[in-house]
## 1
Amino acid sequence: MVSGCDCSTQSDKADAVPDVIRGPNAAYPPREADWVNRWLRRVDKGRSEQPHTVAPLVTTHVLLVQQFRFDSSYQQAPAGTWNFGGGKGLEIIPNTRMEVQVGIPPYVVHSAPSVPDGFGDVSMFLKFRAFSAPEGKGNYFLGLFLGASFPSAPPPNGVGHTIWSPMIAASKGWGRFDVQSTLSASLPQSGTNLLGRQILFNNAFQLKVAKVFWPQIETNSTFFVDGSHSGNQQTFLTPGLVVRSFRIFQRLLFAPGIGVQIATTHFHLYDHRWVWSMRFPF
């Protein structure tokens, strides 16, 4: 991204992939191919009306995106815990202003032998793009998001209650630098005395280097309002690196990322957490 000009060429727009469904070797029957092409044109139109930044590692991506994402993490303290899936999953753009994400239940592996391993809760996430402009025309995004997780797994891998997460999301870019910010709440539908309520404020600061690498630093803050941790606040710094999407086949792309959360406040529920991310935009 370069301020003052629309330099979002095909090489810069890693997620702006061409329409390749038609043709003699198309994988779809004619009628289905027409429907798929109309849908994919809507996807590409929606992408063209917003900036073209990459998804941070922890902060919710402040863009509409169509991809399959699988994250893994290792949390060091108080006990080693692996999380495979990270609550991510399939993200679909049904129209130019909406995104629907269906999260696959994460699989959690505990180092402590007394804690059972197992799947976590299922989740969904909705994004609405209120205002946006691509590079050269403002380079910004403002949206209203809503997440929810549902009690599909027993504790300790599931929380046993439905949790709603309304969110305001915004981003702004200046040349090769951009900032993505989200402000959200974690609101249990029941069990508030046990789970409490939290306010979450996340920020991702990214820099595009050589059109390939996106080094970033995130601040991930949680303010505990109710529950056993009421009145406390924890903040993590998350340095990381995401590699620009490269093509696997036709519209299917791949973009990896890695980073580590580091506790910076006296109160924290864990010390460090390594995060690995695999994204497959299409």
## 2
Amino acid sequence: MVNKGDGVKRSYDSRLRDARAEATRLAIVAAAGRLFAERGYAATSIEEIAAAASVGRATVFTSVGGKPQLLKGAYRLAVRGPANANTPLGQQARSRRISAEADAHKLLAGYAGVMVEVGRRLAPLYEAVRAAAHADPEARELWQLITEVRRTAASGIVRRLAERRALLHGLDRQSASDILWVLNDPALYQLLVTQRRWTQRRFRSWLTHSMQTQLLQPPDPTARK
């Protein structure tokens, strides 16, 4: 006789195993990200990552892969954040709300806020990827992908600004995307917050102002009257 509860139990056990495997994977990726940022990509070994994540060397390979996969995973986790590790940044609820914002100035203020949060998580690892790209072909490939993704994200924001007829007069979309691509670079966070000791609040205010003044028509002073 078949126990009808067996199927439920197996399903529960499977979900539990999957959850544990995902937790292990995230722990490994997070440990790799910390070590890459602290020591550099080339100087960090799989054994050190395994020890930092409290797993065996073989588990690193079966859960994530070798160092190139660890670097990609660490970068992805830093961009998305641990709370949304499996959801691309642009598909997260906050990003969707910002993209739907009707007011172009508020849209860029929200986008700048997201860039500050991402910069806080990402800036140290970003520099490690940049350095690794000079010596490692797979790291170079990741760096090129990162650069393209940032440019695509900038173009998407500019398209929304253009749809709202908010772009500065005489500024074409390609030039606007170039400007925003420069301003969404996490290296700015590293330079101004990490190195020059700006507060995050000051950096966010500067970044918001820079985006708005470089890309948008000035607010109409008569609009509130």
## 3
Amino acid sequence: MKEFLYKTWDYLLDAGIATLTQLLILLGPILVLAFIMNFIARKNESLSYKVLGQKIYLYVFGWLGTSVHELGHAIFAIIFAHKVSEIKLFTPASGKSLGQVKHSYTKGNPYQTIGNFFIGIGPILLGTLLLWLVTILLFDLNIFRVAEKYEVIFNSNLFQSFSALKNAAINIGQGVWETFIFILANSNWWKLVLFFYLFYAIGSSISLSSSDIKGAFRGFIYFVVLLFFFNIATIWKGNFVLDIFSRTTNYFSGFYFLIILSIGLNIGFIVILWLIGLLVSQFSSTRPSRK
């Protein structure tokens, strides 16, 4: 009896470790990048309000980022068969929020419940997709070929040593830099202006509010539980789910390059805004006052 309990525990432990590894491979990269982008977008927004003014920022840049953000929620709410009762893409005069999507679902429905996760992170997925379209339409750039060239492989080996993570980070950095240089070298002035504008405005939509995270968490927990039970039923055949998730993540790794490029550009915008704010404050302090 004791031996049976030990074997059962070991089997459940294997299923749990497999589930954790699968989640890290499938969702780890995009969630980490989204967290970083979320922090930068918030900082960018606050600085833009301060330097440019709230109305200028919202009606020149914020309208696009907000619309993409809310559209990301709405599209995945429809995909996962939620009942969408209201869509407001950009309502700066409402006084409550800049945009809103109201939706409901049938509790206990696995498909709709898991959908909460994708609805919550919808702005990340749609925003990244639009950045991909920007690079294709403006520069005919296939970001996936760049990712393939630098052989950034997402699998369980990536988390087993610091050197593997370091090499992956270096390869990603080189790929992002090559992408940026390619864009600079194959552009005229209006394409560059449009590129910077879109990556600044759309990049700001790759962020999640507290309500987005709360909604996504419900679907995430449900997904984890289902995945764990699926692993219990199949882990004796081997961790083939990890291979599927690794292939999926590797296939979409080009999107990670675009998010990192957007992060880098938005950090550049933060520096520029900070310098402008510093110059304005210095000018204001040295300007003689009228009596």
## 4
Amino acid sequence: MFPLNLPNVLTVLRILAVPVIVVALLDETPNGDALAAGVFALAALTDGLDGYFARSRDAVTTFGKLMDPLADKLLIVAALISLVSLDRLAAWVAMVIIARELAVTGLRAVAAERGIVISASWLGKAKTVLQIGAVFALIIFEPAPLGVDLLVYAAVAMTVISGADYFFGLRRRLEEQRQHRTGAKTEPG
């Protein structure tokens, strides 16, 4: 069982919001788009709040460290796939975003295995804001006006840029770690 604190409850609520959003979008739910947009907006708000509460209340848990990023990815990926199936989003856009999310998750696992913690950069935070804004706008506007299309392309661009930043940042940190170990072995003791 996980520690029952406010940040963890918010994370679990975000996970529970995912099927509500999908059903509201894909089923013929009365006012489904409005319901999906409202639930998505509340779930996205909890993303920022759970981290804030965890840090400010010294309530960081292993559960939260593992489940918070998973909840974020489930929220975005489920919404993207739903929007693709409704023909509101091009499949290639969803695939670029989903591939980046999976790749960064893999990079974080590799880094953790080597004792390196990769914190969210400002580029990653900007990517999240743009993705949330783009998904929310795609839920609200049907058909999407030019401004929404531009927001989607900005989200894709930031997704690629922040993914490259994670990749090159990890590569640099692994190289520094390798040099440190090699240097430590060759120094006289």
